[in-house]
Specification:
Layout: H1 3-13, E1 20-24, E2 39-42, E3 60-66, E4 69-75, H2 86-99, E5 103-112, E6 122-130, H3 155-168, E7 173-179, H4 188-197, E8 201-203, H5 207-216, E9 219-229, H6 240-263
Parallel strand pairs: 1-4, 1-5, 5-9, 6-7, 7-8
Antiparallel strand pairs: 2-3, 3-4, 5-8, 6-9
Helix pairs in contact: 2-5, 3-6
The structure holds hypoxanthine.
């Protein structure tokens, strides 16, 4: 699967073996600037590799040293609502695994389902609900046939991130992320329903990456930047442009959290 992509990346990065992947969501690309002398590879230059189509997602890898880790940053991720097949996302995760990645930090922009977690908050994902109706492992997996998801978001990585949050005084909420397929935002009734499900934030990504990573044995940490309150929780109407602007104000803090996380042993 995506073998030509893997060969191309191997040839580009030589003997550099990334241990950590960072998936940067909607407008969250700034962190890649913290990598010194990165190798930058455009998705469009990689044979057979999928391309992103969303505004604010340039679509390239930034590869290099960050803190104590060798990282591969995905600046621009793949969404099911772009028409990208779930198994293609699993294929990208598989490439990362084959390059050496054993932990993955996934970021996203999400809508809050809780009026007490306002726009601009950062939420550590403690678990997710896959409400997308899709699964990246369909047509992909051999064994195990029914992978365990009882600790999708690594307890150890979460504990470490909570310590970083305390040390840096950057507030981190903790909550459950529910994934919808999109691309439309939710109706107020859906927002009420998801709240009753036990979710704290809603978004259109992350779950396919997380499921495929856990399946392969990659540990996962997820952080949502809350860009808005869910529909019906406030009177204002949300546009993609609003999302990008609000998110920009919180990216810096999230970048600090991730950098400090990677500096910890
Ligand atoms: N819903 C779904 N996805 C999102 C939202 C939202 O309110 N905000 C940012 N991504």
């Amino acid at each position: 699967m995506l073998e030509r992509s893997l060969d191309y990346l191997r040839q580009k990065i030589g003997n550099f073996e990334p241990d950590t992947a960072i998936v940067l969501g909607s407008g969250l690309g700034l962190l890649s600037a913290a990598i010194e002398n990165p190798i930058v590879i455009q998705y469009t230059d990689i044979p057979d590799f999928p391309h992103t189509t969303v505004v604010g997602h340039p679509g390239c890898f930034y590869i290099g040293q960050l803190g104590n880790h060798k990282v591969i940053c995905l600046q621009g991720r793949f969404h099911l609502y772009e028409g990208i097949a779930p198994k293609v996302i699993a294929g990208v995760t598989d490439i990362l695994y084959k390059l050496g990645v054993r932990q993955m930090i996934i970021t996203n922009a999400a809508g809050s389902l809780d009026v007490n977690m306002p726009a601009g908050s950062l939420m550590l994902i403690k678990d997710h609900i896959n409400f997308s109706g899709q699964n990246p492992l369909i047509g992909f997996q051999e064994t195990p046939r029914f992978p365990d998801m009882s600790e999708t978001y690594s307890r150890e990585m979460r504990r470490k991130m909570c310590k970083v949050s305390e040390k840096t005084n950057i507030k981190l909420y903790e909550g459950v992320y529910i994934m919808v397929l999109g691309p439309n935002y939710e109706t107020p009734s859906e927002v009420r329903l998801f709240r009753q499900f036990g979710a704290d934030a809603v978004g259109m990504s992350t779950v396919p990456e997380a499921i495929s990573a856990v399946y392969l044995g990659i540990k996962v940490l997820g952080i949502s930047v809350i860009s808005n309150l869910g529909a019906g929780l406030t009177d204002t109407v949300q546009t993609h442009e609003d999302v990008i602007i609000t998110v920009a104000e919180s990216i810096e803090k999230m970048g600090i959290l991730i950098q400090k996380f990677l500096e910890e042993e």
